[in-house]
Amino acid sequence: MKSLASLSLWRIIILILPLVSLGQTFEYGWPDNYDKPPQCVDIPVDLRLCQGVGYHQMLLPNLLEHESMAEVKQQAGSWVPLLHKNCDPGTQLLLCSLFAPVCMERPIYPCRRLCENVRDGCSPIMAAFGFPWPHILTCDKFPQDDMCINTPNDTSTSEPNGHPPVCPPCDNEMKMDVILDHMCASEFAIKTKIQEVKRENMDRKVTLQKKKRTIKMGTLKKKDLKKLTLYLKNGADCPCTQLDNTRNTYLIMGRKVDKQYLLTGIHKWDKSNREFKKTMKKLKSHKCPAYENVFK
Amino acid sequence: MDNTGCGIHAVHHLFLIWLSVYPLCSQGSWMWLGITSVGVPEKLGCAHLPLSHKQKELCARKPHLLPSVKEGARLGITECQTQFRHERWNCSTRRDPNVFGYELTSGTKETAFIHAVMAAGLVHAVTRSCSAGNMTECSCDTSLLGSGSPTEGWHWGGCSDDIAFGTSFSRRFIDSAAKNTSTRGEEALLIMKQHNSEAGRQAVAKTMLTDCRCHGVSGSCAVKTCWRTMAAFERVGAYLKDRYETSVHVVDRSKRKVRRKDKEQRHVPITKDELIFFNKSPNYCLEDRRLGVTGTRGRKCNRTSAGPDGCNLLCCGRGYNTHVVRHVERCECKFVWCCYVRCRRCETMNDMHTCK
């Protein structure tokens, strides 16, 4: 049994305080405790969220109260697909400053502006997958002074795009890492063809053909599988070349949010593509991070 | 107090000289473990620590608990000094085994707080040792596991602090210390000590809280695990400070039942978490070397404060001296990527006031 007795001592102080009024500052620092202090450890190579972040050592426990490296990896794993979306240049820096904080005498939190930029750039994409901006990344609790982490070259210029952004579930590289990450982030995955695509309010409703093969069952039940209808969340007007081409067979991933099944990823089932074939072979032995076993 | 077995074995020369001034066996308290240097209790061994006879027996039988006792004592003393740092009596300690001197036996509100916070510190330290897996006879509280509220999306898990063992040990270690009392004053002090120690243990129980961890996908709370945990010890200390401010003056003549001194309130029951005392406190203004009261001369005070740390109150009307002190500290710190902190050095000249 892993000991979590000291967890309360490591709780971020402002998380348990009432809402902070603007201008009020808190003394960030290690909680008063008589346990051993946080340790400076190398960022492991399999903490993929934070590879190439710009430093090589991190504090454990981290700033999200994760006590063991297993817990850090397990919780960080679900954020890797967001990095692939490139929704903001500061995404990795924000996440890693909390998941794998830099080793300093006292903890250095991300700047509020960094958090707000990432939130504004990434929360629409997270919403497309059915995830709200999480409580652990609430920007109001981060500092606004100079003792915080910002993007090294903090330019507030936005890059103008000539075309509307691709629907997030359709905007995928044909790369093994990307597909496997999305597979793990999704609850189910099936091989099938598209029967019909129809607009419905702000979403697009995707009806699948009757013939299906399950790649990953997840929480899906057999009876639900027969008449499965997926929704492209907030995807009424964004381009998605996969949905325009109903003749192809697709690897379709999704998850259930409330009573709706959301489309979380769609890849052309392309046997002639070497990367795709490699991914399908790798899929048989790939282990997704398990979310239950860190806590007993 | 144990008056037998006063043989002194060879120890460090300094300790030998020191022991000749303050023989450990004639007086002292387990609280001394909280202010002594690292390694000293282990070197001295159970037989030579300032413990009662029963405490020495417990120590010999369970030597692995000695670090927790030491840590509990340190917790209690540190918290006492934190809570009273701005008061006339600031929980100062002496270096002899009596530790608190007059306040340990005076029967005042200060005595009440000392007993309560020390008992609480022992519960806290032992329980933390249990949860950390350092002990074989105790661990986490597993009675909560398996239950929870699946519809609300959380369940009990992790390591819930089990204060039952720590509480039980605190009772055995502290309350069994002195059983044979003859004089009436000693008996009253014993009753007071037992009541207030128990109030300290209750403070740990009452300040327990539920901590939860969201560990669903992408930081969501779809999966949430909760456990019961002791509050940080400063919260226990603050809780007991509140009890100290409202502690109950009791009659010291009662044989069996503790009763309020206030005649009109005499039949109002005294609750388990109230602190009791039977002697009024001195004003702690002037030094009394015989009692070990240090007085407030030389104490730093706040000229603009109307509270207990203000110069008027802290100095007891004797006035204060003013010195100008130069402070050099880091300021305008900036985190530079990646990764170091750059600060400027700032000098400030401040008035410092000390009691006459």
TrEMBL record, chain A:
Which species does this protein come from? Danio rerio (Zebrafish)
Tell me the protein's name.
Secreted frizzled-related protein 1
Encoding gene (name)? sfrp1a
Where does it reside? Secreted
Q: One Pfam family, short name please?
A: NTR
Which intervals hold domain FZ? 35-151
Q: Key word Signal present in the record?
A: yes
Write out the entry's keywords from A to Z: Developmental protein, Differentiation, Disulfide bond, Glycoprotein, Secreted, Signal, Wnt signaling pathway
* Gene Ontology, cellular component aspect: extracellular space
Q: Which GO terms describe its biological process?
A: canonical Wnt signaling pathway; cell differentiation; closure of optic fissure; embryonic retina morphogenesis in camera-type eye; eye development; non-canonical Wnt signaling pathway; positive regulation of BMP signaling pathway; positive regulation of Wnt signaling pathway
Provide the disulphide bond pattern: 50-96, 115-139
Tell me where the signal peptide lies.
1-23
UniProt-recorded Gene Ontology molecular function terms: Wnt-protein binding
Q: What's the domain of life for this entry?
A: Eukaryota
From TrEMBL, chain B:
Task: Note the superkingdom of the native organism.
Answer: Eukaryota
The molecular function terms of the Gene Ontology recorded here are:
cytokine activity; frizzled binding
Q: Which GO terms describe its cellular component?
A: extracellular space
Q: Where in the cell is it found?
A: Secreted, Extracellular space, Extracellular matrix
What InterPro entries does its record include?
Wnt, Wnt16, Wnt_C, Wnt_CS
* Family from the record: Belongs to the Wnt family.
Q: List the Pfam families hit by this protein, alphabetically.
A: wnt
Q: Which organism is it from?
A: Danio rerio (Zebrafish)
Keywords associated with the record: Developmental protein, Disulfide bond, Extracellular matrix, Lipoprotein, Secreted, Signal, Wnt signaling pathway
Question: What task does this protein carry out?
Answer: Ligand for members of the frizzled family of seven transmembrane receptors.
Give the signal sequence positions: 1-28
Does Disulfide bond show up as a keyword for this record? Answer: yes
Q: Which Gene3D superfamilies match?
A: 3.30.2460.20
What lineage does the source organism belong to?
Eukaryota, Metazoa, Chordata, Craniata, Vertebrata
One biological process term from GO is: regulation of hematopoietic stem cell differentiation
Keyword Lipoprotein part of the UniProt annotation: yes
Principal subcellular localization: secreted
> What is the protein's name according to its record?
Protein Wnt
